[in-house]
Design a protein that fits this description.
Oligomer: single chain
Number of strands: 7
Largest sheet: 7 strands, mixed
């Protein structure tokens, strides 16, 4: 599962005007960025190797880069968090996602960027069907 696939999946329900992966030099208001997140755990592999491994995981960080209004940013980030929390089944790029684990208890306030745009971060881990 690639970051651009997660970005495209978010476009279906996240409510932003702009979506991106990696660094964007001039972030637009009402944007959501998708970043890889390093985790300190070994890769998951079943006994018998990859042929017997049915799922994998992808840890990501979502940056909600909204506007100069703290309340509107908080509401947009909470709406995304709650949409992820209520998710019961989904696919990303034709890959079945078994579980969306939210790794923060809420969208975390990280202050403003240099232009005064408020931002929130959501960490999550996607557990998905591994292609053979």
């Amino acid at each position: 599962m690639q970051l651009y696939e997660i970005r495209d999946w978010l476009k279906g329900f996240a409510g932003a005007d702009h979506y991106y992966i990696g660094k964007l030099d001039r972030k637009q208001p009402k944007s959501i960025g998708v970043y890889s997140r390093q985790v300190n755990s070994p890769p998951r592999m079943a006994l018998g190797g990859l042929d017997n491994t049915s799922y994998d995981s992808k840890a990501v960080s979502l940056l909600v880069h909204w506007n100069e209004n703290a309340r509107e940013t908080d509401e947009a980030a909470a709406a995304l968090y709650n949409a992820l929390r209520r998710m019961t089944t989904t696919t990303i790029a034709d890959t079945r996602v078994y579980y969306v684990r939210l790794d923060t208890t809420e969208a975390v306030d990280v202050g403003t960027d240099d232009d005064g745009i408020y931002e929130r971060v959501i960490w999550l881990t996607l557990f998905y069907e591994r292609s053979k």
